[in-house]
Amino acid sequence: EDQVTQSPEALRLQEGESSSLNCSYTVSGLRGLFWYRQDPGKGPEFLFTLYSAGEEKEKERLKATLTKKESFLHITAPKPEDSATYLCAVDADSWGKLQFGAGTQVVVTP
Amino acid sequence: DVKVTQSSRYLVKRTGEKVFLECVQDMDHENMFWYRQDPGLGLRLIYFSYDVKMKEKGDIPEGYSVSREKKERFSLILESASTNQTSMYLCASSAPGGPFVAQYFGPGTRLTVL
What we know:
- The complex is a heterodimer.
- By secondary structure, chain A is mostly beta strands.
- Chain A has strands spanning about 5, 10-15, 20-25, 30-40, 45-50, 55-60, 60-65, 70-75, 85-90, 100, 105-110.
- Chain A has a single domain, classed as Immunoglobulins (Immunoglobulin-like), CATH 2.60.40.10.
- Chain A is built from no helices and eleven strands.
- In chain A, strands 2, 4, 5, 9, 10 and 11 form a six-stranded mixed beta sheet that branches.
- Chain B is built from no helices and eleven strands.
- Helix content of chain B is about 0%, strand content about 55%.
- Chain B is mainly β.
- At the A-B interface, strand 4, strand 5 and strand 9 of A face strand 5, strand 9 and strand 10 of B.
C-alpha cells in the first residue's frame, strides 16, 4: 500500500533559524510529489510540484528537493509568517488522485 | 488565479439531516475532488469526478454521495448526517493533462453534526 510519512509532526523555530521538513514515500510508481501550505481554518495552498529525483524548486524562503524515496522542504531564515502546516502529497499510479501525509506543523517565533 | 469557492465556511446540522455541501470553481477545470480532513488522519479522498455526470469513489465514500451536473459545480451530499461525519470538508479542482497536475483547494467547510 502506498504510504506518505511526514516528519517531524511539529517544529518550533526561532525567527532566522533554518530547518528542514521530511516527506518519505513508498509508492509503486511516483508520478509527482506536491507540497502545500495550510493556514489554520483554511484550505491548502499549492507550493511546488516535483517530478523526478534530483529536482529542486524554490519560492522565497522555501526550497523543495526530491530523491527516489523522500522529499525535503528547507525553510531558510524563517519569519513568523512562515508559520503553518506543510503538507506533502504524492500522485502515484492512480491518475490525478493524491495521497497526503499528515503534515508538519511549523511555528516560528520572533 | 484559480478560485475554488465552497458554499459555507461553517455549518451545524442535526443527526439524520440531509446535508448539501457545494463547491464551484471558475477555471474550467475538468477534475474535481472532495476530501475530509481530521486531526491526526490528514486529508482523505471521499469522491472525485473527471467530467460532468461522472463520479468515482475515493478512499472513504461510505455515507456520502456526489453530484456533478455542471462542469464548474461539484456537490457533496450526506444523505443522513451522523456525528462521525463532523469534520472539515475540502473541495479541490485540477486541470486535465494527466499526472503532475496540482490540485487547487477551496477554503473548506467546517461541519458539525450534533
